[in-house]
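Researcher: Go.
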Amino acid sequence: MTAPRYLCASSSLLLLITSFTALSGQNTVPVPGKVTEIEFPQPDMPPTLYSLVTGDRVPARMAIRLPDDYDPQSRYPLLVYFRGRDGGPSGDIGMAERIVGSRGWVLASVPLFKKSLDPSEPLGGIVLNYDDYPTLQKAYGIMLGRLFELVPNIEKDKGAMAGFSNGAITIGILVACQDPMVTAHFRSFVLVDQGASFLAGWYKKPVTSSRFLLLVGDRQDREGDGRELLMRQTKLTGDFGKFFGVPVEVQVMQGIGHAFTEEYAKAVGRWLKGRPFVEAAGSSGQ
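Model: Structure:
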């Protein structure tokens, strides 16, 4: 199964715009061990989902954190984090640091984007879908293009993306639509408590050469919240990926509802660093 092509389609004009505007972020130089925010003022960028929801027309911002042990002569893996709900004005760089720590990784967080907001839809229309892909492609093409310019020693084919809730849906759409920036530079994907149903195209080469971690909570937050369906759907998605030979790991967050706790963030960090998601008692390491 693949994502509907007419929903993922993007025009060549959009690709040209993305290429041109990748230089539009502020000329701020990230500093090791500190968070740097890069603004992308409109009209270069579509409005963020945060702006659509709140009416606060602040420019889109990307937060970057170079590791404490940063050396310009060394190469570093990249983790990009997508937070949930409306995504905030610049995502959540703090969660990215909680996942992999402050050393050895370049961290970035980005806001979420949506073509438009329909308040009559569930949750006020904030949930993303495939028809938002052209907006996502333009926005993240600009932002990530700028990131790779500012930090040229990122290991550009070993990046990781992690997202929670609406942020996980964003990752699912980018993967299913085979976004060129994502397929070129990212190989590890973590989707937390949503987004699994959006993954598609398991037999396509960019996907088969990647690995996936799907997390789902087992606690019902309220009656009729569809928790059991989400758990079954996540596990079935993992089975589909495995059927096509894709490394997919599904983990149930015990006693957790719709949340991404620090305990599980650290477990995700272990997985991203090549260690078991669940480590044996007495094991150590960061």
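Model: Residues 11-25, 281-286 have pLDDT under 50 and may be disordered.
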